[in-house]
Amino acid sequence: MIGSDKRTLQNVVASRTDNHIGVGHATHETTAHSTMSNTKPRRLAWIATVVFAIGGVVFAAQNAQALSPLTVVNGITAGQGVGVSSDILYGDEPEQDLDIYYPKPLAQAINSQQAIKDTYPMVVFVYGGSWENGTKEQYAFVGKSLARAGYVTAVINYRKAPEHPYPDYVEDTAKAIAWSYDNAMSLHVDPQRLAVMGQSAGAFNAVAAVSNEDFLAPYGIQPKDIKAVVGIAGPYSYDFRQFDSASAFPADATPDQVMPDRQIKGEQPPYLLLTAENDEIVYDVNTINMTKALRDYGARVETSEIEGASHATSIGAMAPPLRWLNDVRAQVLTYLDKELK
To answer: Are 190 and 116 in contact (CB under 8 A)?
Structure first.
């Protein structure tokens, strides 16, 4: 087992059934890149507007706190009966922890101590935030959404820049993937049906951690051991030195040394790389370049555009109550079902 655990894995697996949760355009090297951390609050404002417009949530108990859009999304995703085990350590450093979300039938079987013969597919999800922001709790709605669809899901934290620049956050992602793979049977997961998924900076982490065999090699895992990778609006191919996100990378680093489209090593799993039609944060040239690099290497890659999606809604619409905004959830689940089930 990789890393340690605040409790024992046996204890956290036998957790409650959850019924409440409270809670850039990276471009070609010569094009403009907005700072994800500076623009995120404005870009996520749509969520609060949408939720309060449909009158679906009451937050009277939170009037003493600032109400973030991600809190709104998690509020409307609550009460779906999935199971959750929180704050499991996959390493010994700060922020090396994760939450596990279980499909409702599995959560019920665990809680009632029934014999469990079936195994489930698993997704390891990596959130974005310019490599400097974000918490696993903010993306609980993704874990719940995937668990509702039958996937045991790990939503991971990782160390943040600027204190921990590249490659620390990619190494953390690889460590969390390895922890999930090694502990699969304890989670009632089939390790041969494990996928990795990320959005924005998290897509960079996910794709980098898997496509370059050097990141998984310390744990005895190869890229081909991962069943599939899903990247949503990821900045896989840009010159970070021109933008505020330079603080997430070593001062003397170059794009050729760190961009995933230039660091592919090892036999590759299949990929789904999605772009958002109205993305003004991460331009689609990143996905174009990453797709070409993977295909030139011999990997199988599917690509698609999320019609009507902005950078924010390319992940926000994973929340089932907001799936009318675009079809990202349908595209992701169609792909995962094909590759993992």
So the answer is: no
Instruction: Write down the domain spans for the chain.
Output: 9-51+66-340
Contact (CB, 8 A) for 17 and 111? yes
Averaged pLDDT, 48-70: 36
301, 291 Cβ separation under 8 angstroms? yes
pLDDT for residue 112: 87
pTM of the model: 0.81
Residues near 105 by Cβ (< 8 Å), separated by ≥ 6? none
Residue 63 to residues 21, 59, 140, 189, 228, Cα–Cα distance (Å) = 16, 7, 21, 40, 42
- The two three-digit tokens of residue 89, written as one number: 């350590």
Q: Match domain 9-51+66-340 to its CATH number in 3.40.50.1820, 3.30.230.10, 3.40.50.2300, 3.30.530.20.
A: 3.40.50.1820
Amino acid at site 4: S
Q: How far is Cα 297 from Cα 295, in angstroms, rounded to an integer?
A: 5
- Other CB atoms within 10 Å distance of the CB of residue 51: 21
- CA–CA distance, 206 with 196 (Å, rounded to integer): 6
Q: Looking at 2-6, 271-275, 310-314, which range is the least confident one? A: 2-6
Q: Which two tokens stand for residue 300?
A: 């199988």
- Distance of alpha carbon 79 from alpha carbon 18, whole angstroms: 7
At 217, which amino acid appears? Answer: A
Residue-wise pLDDT for 193-216, tens only, equals: 999 999 999 999 999 999 999 999
**Continuous segment of H or E residues that includes residue 98:** strand 97-102
Supply the angle between the helices 69-77 and 140-148 in degrees, to the nearest 10: 30
DSSP, collapsed to helix, strand or coil, labels residue 295 as helix
